[in-house]
């Protein structure tokens, strides 16, 4: 079943230790609980309990490897803005099921959906568009934007944790 995140989660009640814990995990998600415990001056079982609570509450949604898609043969990042005639949920679900589609967002403005794709080259992109995206019932218009360059991965998580810590301290 496809999970759609609507951005309406309840704000978690985090204390300063939770925020420092998240900051450490953002730097190194593979750090041992003992190492984190030393950094936070708390016990390893307490770290484990806090991590488990943050996972239960949905604050921590998973642990993933960061992949260089170019090294795997998918260097081209493409954004597809999509207008759907009706039943956006069905179009959204169909887009989400396409392997090359990394993420789909429901957006405001002149389009309904914005999809981020990874493809090998323009031939691969054409195949995905013609054989998959344009075949989805309800898709009226698709405009593609090919990324010519992108910045290095920004450590967004640590930056936002810094904002939360600043807000918590004020």
UniProtKB/TrEMBL annotation:
Residues spanning the membrane: none
Taxonomic superkingdom: Bacteria
Keywords, ordered alphabetically: DNA-binding, Transcription, Transcription regulation
HTH asnC-type domain span: 14-75
Name of the featured protein: Lrp/AsnC family transcriptional regulator
CDD domains: HTH_ARSR
């Amino acid at each position: 079943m496809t999970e759609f995140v609507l951005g309406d989660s309840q704000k978690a009640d985090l204390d300063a230790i939770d925020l420092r814990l998240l900051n450490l995990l953002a730097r190194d998600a593979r750090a041992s609980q003992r190492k984190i415990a030393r950094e936070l001056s708390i016990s390893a079982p307490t770290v484990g309990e806090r991590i488990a609570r943050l996972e239960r509450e949905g604050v921590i949604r998973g642990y993933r490897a960061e992949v260089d898609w170019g090294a795997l043969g998918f260097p081209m990042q493409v954004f597809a803005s999509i207008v759907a005639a009706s039943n956006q949920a069905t179009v959204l679900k169909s887009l989400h099921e396409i392997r090359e589609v990394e993420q789909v967002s429901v957006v405001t403005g002149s389009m309904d959906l914005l999809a981020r794709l990874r493809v090998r080259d323009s031939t691969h992109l054409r195949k995905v568009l013609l054989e998959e995206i344009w075949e989805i019932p309800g898709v009226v218009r698709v405009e593609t934007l090919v990324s010519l360059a992108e910045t290095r991965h920004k450590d967004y998580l640590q930056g936002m944790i810094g904002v939360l810590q600043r807000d918590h301290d004020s």
